[in-house]
User: Fold these one by one.
Assistant:
Number 1:
Amino acid sequence: MASNLPIGVFDSGIGGLTVVKEIMSQLPGERIIYFGDTARVPYGSKSKETVTAYSRQITRFLLGKEVKAIVVACNTVSAVAMDALLEEVPVPLIGVVKPGARAAVETSRSGSIGVIATETTIRSHVYNSFINGIDPKLQVYGKACPLFVPLVEEGWLNHHVTEEVVEHYLKELLEHDIDTLVLGCTHYPLLRDVIQAYVKEGITLVNPAYETTKKLKQCLADKDLLSSYKQVTDHTFYVSDGAEKFRSFANSILPCEIIETKDVNVKTFE
């Protein structure tokens, strides 16, 4: 049955695990095949052409695993490569930017929204475009936070250096009196506690991973692709480098144990 085929999820590294965690929570009967491009992380400082080329390689790899849908659990890819991928990928393709933008619009009370993301995502103005496409009166202030991804990949989630970097990046953003802050990179929810502690309780953090999973669930339902299983644990994880380090980190944040993570040379999927 096509409905019982797995869902493909990919990211530049470990950040996409925040989306995997949400899928496991909201859709416990869905089997996941995950790919983290740990050898080439971060994507956020790379060109649109490079990010698109990497994304094509990964989607071909996942399609070779007979997935029924693909979740692009990377804001940078969602910002600059989605149009190209939508033309080529024959299964439902869900990005993280649109759901996050819509959630920000629904959350904001003052009409002043902050977005933190990678350099490429901020330069693309994709969040501004989607948010103002819903409500042109909203003010959107973006801030690139390029050091957040390597801090997460290093596992420095509550390190004093991370606290200093958070203050460095967000101090200027808070001068705009934002009441909503979009965590516009799937790595960033892993720094949620440090970020929330700095911005205080008056600012609501929006995690696109949660909203993306809601959209995925609706998409699968509309296409009669929801799994008939009630609970699955046989998920599969691939990375392009550092399989054991990835597995250890995944087991620290996911609700089920990851027995094995496999290395794969995704460059062969040209």
Number 2:
Amino acid sequence: MQGDELSHVDESGAIHMVDVGAKPSARRRARARAFVRMSPGTAERLRALPKGDALAVAQVAGIMAAKRTAELIPLCHPLPLTHVDVGLEVEGDGVAVEASVETTAQTGVEMEALTAATVAALTVYDMAKAIDKKMVLEDVRLLGKTKEVVE
């Protein structure tokens, strides 16, 4: 169910950071996905690389991005992340990226998961752009989120 109002805009239209001070801490998880579509030849070249090369750089970039989300998205709360996992897999005509992020805090980690997936995908794009000018970053989406109240 979605609310009727934008969470970062007050009645007068001014922007603000959401006050989560009164919310209880909860263990929160979010998963996000992105896909970099590319030519079959580019995908094959990435698939043929030794494990740990290009995709490992993108994995680390995604993890670092999750940790810096509050610096990139102005109204995001800085969160103490307890776990970040970014997986990349060459699938068919591209690279699928999936990121999962966890914290115990008063607000969720959707933006951190989306940021991790997107930056990892952008890193793949950056590393392959010299050989494939027609790559497309697509299907960036939240796969799910959970919240478990901590007592």
